[in-house]
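Example A, followed by Example B.
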Amino acid sequence: MVVTVLIKRGCPSASTREKSIRSPAAGVRIDVSAVDADGRARLIKTVRTNADGRTEAPLFGPGEMEAGRYELLFHVGAYFRTMGSAVTDPPFLDLVPVRFAVATAGGHYHVPLLVSPYGYVTYRGS
């Protein structure tokens, strides 16, 4: 599994999305959790993004990722404060949880997060 975080500069509206400047978000904390049957997240590890906005290594090694539900918790409020972005106190977006299911153990999953201080988009990448 690969995670990429890109920062979207400018207004997150449909008319400006294509024209926005995208840059990698270095140093974003991501908590990786398994989600139990009762819906509770069980922390597996915490990682940070590198200068390319990606984790240094896949979140799971060969044979480690099982079928099930997972959560990536992106600490974007702290990132934007560190970068000196104009954010409210408390920030509009502080923690961005992305919950997803893995149907086939060992499959390839890429989870990009495109984020600004006031909105985000995520999807299953290739």
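Example B, a separate protein, is given below in the same form.
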Amino acid sequence: MMTQELPLNIEGLEQYQSKLAGSSSAWLKAFRQKNFDQWASLSMPTVKDEEWKYTSLSEVVNRKFQIATRHQLIEDRQFDNYRDKADINVVLINGVLWGDLSNLKHLPQGLKISTLSETLSHGNTEVQDTISKLTPNDTKAFLSMNQALFLDGAYIQVEKNAVIEPLVHIIHVTSGITDNTVVFPKSFITVGESAQVSILESYISFGPVPFLSNAVTDMRIGANANVTYCKSQAEAHQAMHVGTTRIWQERASTLDSFSFIHGANITRNNLSILIKGEGTNTIMNGLYGLDGHQHVDNHTLLDIQHPNCTSYQIYKGLLNGSSRAIFNGKIYVHSLAQKTNAYQLNKHLLLGKDARVDTKPQLEIFADDVKCTHGATIGQLNQEEVFYLQSRCIPKQMAIQLLSKGFIDDILNTIKNDSIRGKLKPLIVKKFPEVKL
């Protein structure tokens, strides 16, 4: 019998673990148990923890959760409007890969897609080795919980020298659940040497149901590879989303990443990129659009361990109502990482009088031959600009919308992939159909 007090109260956990153990290989069973023991030894982070001081989890800790047992899509019509048949769609319902909803029968040469549980059970040493070496970052309790309790996930492999033209769209759908359900979306992506691929990973739900999404994505990018990766979080406003994305980037590779957040009531988004080779190029851009009482906490870490690397990061937030945003972006330059060129900027536009921002761009530099800059801005619309547009017979409300759109488009237009950009723009337009001061 399970007698220890766990960080999160989950009903029927012992029976669920027995079911997992019965269907796992020896390696996967040991991996789950190791992570469960780590999770059981931890406490949920509180506002007393430096990395969580602006985000309270009391609302989560005081609830009793249950793990999703149904893995069936019930919102077929809404989902069809979201999916583009021209993409390579990889659809997971409550953490389980659904082949019938995906289109995986005629994949381009050099692309392999399978369930993550099957990959781990069959002893894929590259995946096992990468997962064990990636750092846990600031969401350690949630990471251990995900790796102990995930049922399935998606494994995406792009082989060496492969060029994948269609967009690979991983769609995590939370559907058919009851109140206070917890789901564990999980993906592992490996991109071989000199390969090219564009990936959009979306998190969506349609019903007004409170739930916890504890999501983990791990990625390994081989030498000279070129990857475009975007994470889009558009879950219901009653949800809480804790996302952990860990990326291992090797020599002379290029990563163009984008984080897009406009769903959930509370979002904690952790992105950690580990630079494990010389001459890499890394772009870390993001946009979050909030209204009502939404709360978004973005933490990013770029860990540069090798010389001659470049990075560029701009995160923008558009806040309406009484929403709140936190940004903590750290760039860590090791002593060996000479000739590093790193740029970081965080900008916020406050439309709501009660909106609030806490921002903390950070540089930790232990090399002496580098070029690193960072900055942050928080402001409201320039009333002179609003007045100028009004003097040109543009109504005040439309003037506000135009200026807000300019703020948004500036960052969205950094997305080079037309298919990804085309999917994100309608979401943010729906978010602010009528901007009010």
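On Example B: The chain has a mean pLDDT of 92.
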